[in-house]
Amino acid sequence: MSNNPRTGLAVAGLSLGTALNPLNSSMIAVALVVLRADFGLDVAAVTWVVTSFYLASAAGQPVMGRLADRFGPRRMFLLGMGLVAITCALAPFAPNFALLCVARAVMALGTATAYPSAVVMVGALAHRAKVDSARPLGRLQMANTSAAAVGPVVGGLLVALVGWEALFLINVPLALGALLIVRRAAPPDQVREHGSVAELLRDSDIPGIAGFIGALLLVMMAALNVAPAYRWWMLAGGTVIAALFAWRELRFAKPFLDLRLLGRNRPLMLVYLAFAVFSSVYYFVFFGLPQLLQEAGGYDPGLVGLLMLPLAGMSVVATPWAVSAMGRFGVRRVLIAGVVLLTVVAALMWLLTGTLAIPFVVVLTALMGVPYGTVSIASNQGMFLSTRPQERGIAAGIYQTCRYVGAITATVMIGVFASGGVDQAGWMRMVLAMLVLCAVTLGISVFWKQQAKP
């Protein structure tokens, strides 16, 4: 990427750090059945090990993006990687499922620092390397795409050979490696704000964060029917808290989720909406398919992980192709083409209601990798082009929040459609939901246009 080896090394370290969040979000997919057996859980209950991670990530990404803008991206990246290493070294000793979910949430907060910090640093790195920002962003996206896609393979092997505990321990050397590389090769932070802890707490919008998490939790619990007698009360409470959250964020000076940024930047808002809905389609496959293969197909976790491997290969191939295509045809055309292909692949997933033969699974997972890599990098670049440089940290944090909201939506709907286990009848309902969501994503993507001067 540059004649300066430190630039390439810095991008490699940032890529490794940003990969930890998607890696951990996807490795768990093949461990859900094992966790259900170990802790005596049903499908709805075990989804909390997924949603706790995403809730913490969704809340943490915008906050970490703001902190990176304020105190320096390099400093925040190093702190996050240290938190991941410590948490993952202790998590395997969790005595119950509740504490395991807490450990996942803390780990998510640590990994949440990486992506917004990396996006802030990309501008300086691209300038130093004298290349367009799409190139280092493409490297980050390839790392994220590869990690998310390889996660089930790695997770399946670790669970089959060691147990679910290994899903945490693997993060210790990875986080420490990213920390050491970035500490050595990344450029130092520019002079930024330095305030007291009291000022930091005051500016962190803790009520806003609590409102965001509370609204999501109540709506999720109502959808999963956690407490049948209070289901409608929880839904009403979640709606009221969401309204109060929006009211506060529009009036607070430094909001956790900058709704005013979205209000004055229509292209950015459309990118976020499209990416959130797209993510829900993708995570239907990512979390639903491994459970279908294990429960309805009888495949062991190691084999299921290998069956998801083609997704990794095709997503890695698709990402540089999409970067090249964006330079030739523009971001919007590549984004729309990726969503159209996503719709076709989602429709082909219907074949799995009739057979779970390995050749069909391999072909379909490979096909899913193409739109995943294409839409992800096009949305990423769309976000970058739709944002002013001084707002890219917080914008990148909100972008990742959209990913997690989509993932939470998918896991909740899986729990609703297949509360007793993921079988082929439940998979049929999931495919129908995916097609509806694909249509929504396409409709949003058509209206997105790149700003002339972000």
Give me a quick take on this structure.
79% of the residues lie in helices and 0% in strands.
Explain how this protein is built.
This protein has helices at 5-27, 32-39, 43-46, 48-71, 73-90, 97-111, 114-129, 134-161, 166-169, 171-185, 197-203, 206-223, 231-249, 259-263, 266-295, 301-307, 309-329, 331-348, 358-385, 392-417, 424-447. The protein has 454 residues and is mostly helical. The model has no long low-confidence stretch (mean pLDDT 82).
Number of helices: 21
Element string (H = helix, E = strand): HHHHHHHHHHHHHHHHHHHHH
Gyration radius (Cα, Å) is 21 Å
Q: Give the DSSP E fraction (strand runs of 2 or more residues).
A: under 5%
Proportion in helices: over 70%
C-alpha termini separation: 25 Å
Assembly state here?
single chain
Give the overall pLDDT as a whole number.
82
Principal-axis shape equals globular
Number of strands: 0
Name the structural class.
Answer: mainly alpha
Largest sheet, described in full? none
Which stretches of 5+ consecutive residues score pLDDT under 50? Answer: none
